[in-house]
Each structure stands twice: as structure tokens, then as C-alpha cells.
Amino acid sequence: MAGVLKKTTGLVGLAVCSTPHERLRILYTKILDVLEEIPKNAAYRKYTEQITNEKLAMVKAVSS
Asked: Exposed site from 1, 23, 26, 42, fewest CB < 10 Å?
């Protein structure tokens, strides 16, 4: 699928991102930075960090 480019999201007013992997990497990194402000023993931080790190690893694996 190297030559296939998505032209529409199918949602009115929502443009297709030209660099989705880079955008996701930036967003997941920002989420992890914000989580640093939450106490380490908070359940929300633990689970959100776990999920975000898993998603970030997937994005990095696909990007490279």
C-alpha cells in the first residue's frame, strides 16, 4: 500500500493528516509529559502511562 494516499476522512470538516505517525508521536509524548505532574502512585497515571507507552511503541515501530 505504499502508493495509496487517503484523500478524505469521510467526516465533514475534518481534514486528512499528511503526517499521522509524527502527529501521534508528538501527542503521546505530550501526554506522557503531563502525566509527570500526577503523583506516581495514582492509578490514573499508572494505567494511562501504560496505555500511552504501548501506543507510542506501536507508532515508533510502524514509523521506522
From this structure: 1
